[in-house]
Amino acid sequence: MEVSLSTTMPHTGSLGIISFRNLYQCVMSDINISFIDTSGVTTMAAEIDEIVSDFSRFYILTILYEGPSHGYSILSKFRKRIGKEISPSLVYPFLRQLEQKGLVKHTLKPVGAKKKKVFELTKEGKELCKQLFKRFSSLVSVAIEPSLEVCANCGCKVYEGGYREVINRKEMAFCCIHCAEAYKREALEKSRREPA
């Protein structure tokens, strides 16, 4: 099955946080997914190039990955979670495009007094989302890694907040006050064991 998702659709109301300008073709075989951009360069799933034109489309896929949704539900979830409006002129054409490519299917289901098209990802759509999520998590890691601090006690990474304390004239970062207390207890025990 060959899939291409156009990234040239108007994106009124989108956040525009992440913007990708190329037209990509997604070629899916059983498990392998590769992308071919307009320059003809092929990339395997481990190195997926961005096929989602902006954050809004990526988030629509995220909502669908969570479970079936009708168009208005997608609009509402987006508004509630992101705090921004998304244009129906972005959502509905994108859903049609995903459906044409076999990544989404719809069924008519009663929602209130009306029957609505409820969209859900196909097996291929779910696989594509998993690959996109892996790629996106790598991008997020690169973006926040410089801002992370490592807890001096347990070694976990802390993005914001945490707990700071000066110990032996040195300011140290901890994920919580409990780790700071544990660190001080261990340091005290260690100093008692060492000969003076």
Largest sheet descriptor: 4 strands, antiparallel
How far the N terminus sits from the C terminus, by CA atoms, comes to: 73 Å
Structural class: alpha+beta
**What integer is the average pLDDT?**
76
Strand content: 15-25%
CATH topology of the largest domain: the name is: Arc Repressor Mutant, subunit A
User: In angstroms, what is the radius of gyration?
Assistant: 23 Å
> Which CATH class of the largest domain is shown?
Mainly Alpha
Topology as a string of helices (H) and strands (E): EEEEHEHHEEHEEEEH
Strand order across the largest sheet: 1-2-3-4
Can you tell me the CATH superfamily of the largest domain?
Winged helix-like DNA-binding domain superfamily/Winged helix DNA-binding domain
CATH architecture of the largest domain: Orthogonal Bundle
**Helix amount:** 25-40%
How does this structure look, described?
Helix content is 39%, strand content 24%. The protein is an alpha+beta fold. It folds into two domains: 2-145, Winged helix-like DNA-binding domain superfamily/Winged helix DNA-binding domain (Arc Repressor Mutant, subunit A, Orthogonal Bundle); 149-193, no CATH class. The chain has a four-stranded antiparallel β-sheet with strand order 1-2-3-4, with no helix packed on it. Strands 5-7-6 form a three-stranded antiparallel β-sheet. Strands 8-9 form a two-stranded antiparallel ribbon. It is elongated, with a radius of gyration of 23 Å.
